[in-house]
Design brief:
The chain has about 425 residues and is α/β, with parallel strands linked by helices. It has two domains: about 200 residues, Rossmann fold; about 190 residues, Rossmann fold (3-Layer(aba) Sandwich), CATH 3.40.50.2000. The strands form two sheets. The protein has a seven-stranded parallel beta sheet with strand order 3-2-1-4-5-6-7, with helices on both faces. A seven-stranded parallel beta sheet has the order 10-11-9-8-12-13-14. It is globular and about 65 Å long. The mean pLDDT is about 95.
Length: about 425
């Protein structure tokens, strides 16, 4: 009785939290474009989904991702399913605009939608409309009403590339609702053995360690990367520092460091946010020494004496890293930590990033293998770039980066081996 009362209380608190979050986003949408996209993208959403699925006769495989990073993580699995199970329709949902707005036209899926907010009625209506044969959730997405509805309907639900740490709510005394969500999954694939042990400590036993599907994604993407003529032209005859997913802290840091690098070096900056206001801030910071990607094309390659190429478009970062001599991975000065280091390391280039990286296994391991370096101040970066002039040392670090990524592949195969045995 006490347990049931606790769960009722947890659910009521969860519903209140969802309501407060939705209200806060609506207020933020008045002055924040991302929040506005979040709200506008969900207007009439369920009706839109119902209309699109009304004549769908195929069984549906549904994958849900929080944002763009999780999509790239789940992409190897969904593309393998699409190739090996062509009779199924593929449906992808996103929680965040930064995922949906970039991948809403993704050709590897039959349907791409925002996910309706997690309420009792929304979850029921969505699942009625989609009627998925298989549900895939990527890494950190846990929505109680969706998951409990899926479990009630006996639909197989798989969580892939998850990562758990002891400080998460699942392992706290007050994490009863979170633990119940974990038990809604048919199977959980985690990145490491520590996550397996943590889940088993709370009696979640349908779990196995498969590694991280992001390794498979970057390996595949590097093999298929197309040439970017603008980057080819800008890079010729120079050493290139590609700075990806940068924030203001990164850009200020790079400005201080790059002023002291030899003229043989050029800088490509691909910021995390590419709205015009932010692009103009970077241009002002670097005092007219930049040229925008959008100002160059295959017919107009003239860039004068500009040493800095400012990428004012999204979706090409993974391709851009291939032109780097070295890479700067953004986010290492912010509380969220460094971004995806694998996207650069797969090309066999040494990586640099700021001191906030410890929550990411691959960022720690890449340092241990000698493929990456933590940089704390601009002088460290300048010194490290000079050390890259030593050909022997450079190739040692470059090879260490590439070997680390290549050795981490195979998670997708493990997920697929499981699914092939599952009667979905």
């Amino acid at each position: 009785m006490a347990f049931e009362f606790s769960m009722i209380l947890y659910v009521l608190i969860y519903r209140l939290a969802i309501s407060i979050y939705t209200a806060a986003i609506r207020i933020a949408a008045l002055f924040n474009n991302k929040a506005k996209l979040f709200i506008n993208g969900r207007k009439g959403l369920l009706q839109h989904i119902k209309e699109n699925l009304s004549n769908e006769s195929r069984s549906v495989i549904w994958m849900h991702c929080a944002s763009l990073g999780e999509f790239e993580q789940g992409r190897p699995v969904i593309e393998t399913l699409h190739r090996e199970y062509p009779a199924y329709a593929i449906l992808i949902t996103f929680f965040s605009p930064s995922g949906y707005e970039v991948r809403k036209d993704y050709k590897g899926a039959d349907y791409v939608f925002y996910l309706p907010m997690d309420t009792i009625s929304n979850a029921r209506e969505f699942l009625d409309a989609v009627n998925p044969a298989l549900c895939l959730f990527v890494k950190y997405e846990f929505w109680y009403f969706y998951l409990s509805n899926i479990a009630t309907r006996n639909i197989p639900a798989i969580l892939i590339s998850a990562l758990f740490t002891r400080d998460q709510e699942f392992f706290k005394w007050y994490g009863g609702l979170q633990r119940r969500m974990l038990r809604c999954f048919s199977h959980i694939f985690v990145q490491d053995k520590a996550s397996v042990n943590l889940l088993k400590s709370i009696k979640v036993d349908k779990v196995s360690s498969s590694g991280d599907t992001r390794f498979d994604r970057v390996i595949m993407a590097a093999r298929e990367a197309a040439d970017l003529p603008v980057a080819v032209n800008f890079s010729q005859g120079h050493k290139i520092l590609v700075a990806g997913s940068t924030w203001k802290e990164d850009e200020t840091f790079l400005h201080k460091a790059f002023a002291h690098t030899p003229l043989s070096w050029r800088l490509i900056i691909a910021p995390h946010e590419v709205d015009n206001e932010h692009i103009e801030e970077i241009e002002k910071l670097f005092s007219g020494n930049t040229i925008r990607w959008s100002q160059l094309n295959s017919h107009n390659m003239e860039q004068g004496n500009k040493r800095i190429l400012l990428v004012d478009k999204i979706g090409i970062l993974l391709q851009l890293y291939r032109y780097g001599t070295v890479a700067w991975i953004g986010g290492g000065f912010g509380k969220e930590g460094v971004h995806n280091v694998l996207e650069a390391a797969v090309y066999g280039i040494p990586c640099f990033y700021g001191p906030v990286f410890h929550q990411f296994i691959e960022a720690k391991e890449l340092i241990e293998k000698g493929g990456a370096f933590v940089i704390n101040d601009p002088a460290d970066l300048v010194s490290s770039l000079k050390e890259m002039d030593d050909s022997f040392r450079y190739h040692q670090h470059a090879n260490a980066a590439k070997e680390y990524v290549l050795s981490g592949g195979g998670a997708t195969d493990q997920v697929m081996d499981y699914l092939k045995k599952y009667p979905f």
